[in-house]
Amino acid sequence: MSAVARKALTLLFKPLARTKVSDQHYTVMLEAARRLSTPGQPVSAEILAEALGLPLDVVLSVVDQVVVDLVLDEQAAGSKDGAAALRYVEQAVRCLPPAQRARYRHEWRAELASLPITHWAPYAIGLLQSSPQLSIALSWPVRRRRPA
Amino acid sequence: MSKPRMTLATQRVLRALLERPADERYGLEISEYAGLPGGTIYPILARYEQLGWLESRWENLDPREEARPRRRYYRLSRDGAEKAREALAAADARTRSRRSAVLKPLEGLA
What we know:
Chain A is mostly helical. Chain A has helices spanning 3-18, 23-36, 45-52, 56-77, 80-94, 98-113, 120-145. In chain A, helix 2 crosses helix 4 (56-77) and helix 5 runs antiparallel to helix 6 (98-113). Chain A is globular and about 50 Å long. The N and C termini of chain A lie far apart (61 Å). By secondary structure, chain B is mainly alpha-helical. Chain B is elongated, with a radius of gyration of 18 Å. Chain B starts with 7 loop residues before the first helix and ends in a 7-residue tail after the last helix.
């Protein structure tokens, strides 16, 4: 891999690692970014799995998710509304309890991918409006267990 | 944990899922079947999943081949389908009794 390609990939992966979608996602992406930014360090899904002691399936699913996320981001970049919709989804996700964010981020982005891009923004606004309610619903069992 | 309130939106979601209880549906499909805006259904789905009425799982696909993320699929658990039917029947009975109370002619006017 050329130095330029390596640098480009580093720039691509480092922000993704920082977003910390989930602990596993973060671990895999951080290791990938660390290796890509160190000349001479080999990088592949198999090498990452071995280095991190994770099953290959897990590493592949994280990498798949990154690739699909990039496709979605690329789609959104071509449209002002699309980019706004992804921002609304991120805001909606931030309203949720931290342990649930990765699941709903993934779930909602998958829902957006099923819609024409012109429908993304209204759908994402709906998610944003109902996210406080969802947050309460997700925190509900924990709160009810506390003594009065 | 007590049962959540059986609002009209909740009833619509449960009815949509009960149409074909064995089928799995993702969020957008459920909101279309229920005739509700997309975001509205997630608090309802979350509550019923916590109660064990609903089960959910990630779709089995290769995202690279399909070029789209995996969807989250929901369906009623066996126990949940039974409880949902009972809860909807009770809600219908409440609605009927409320309607008949409103429509009952006042004494002396009949």
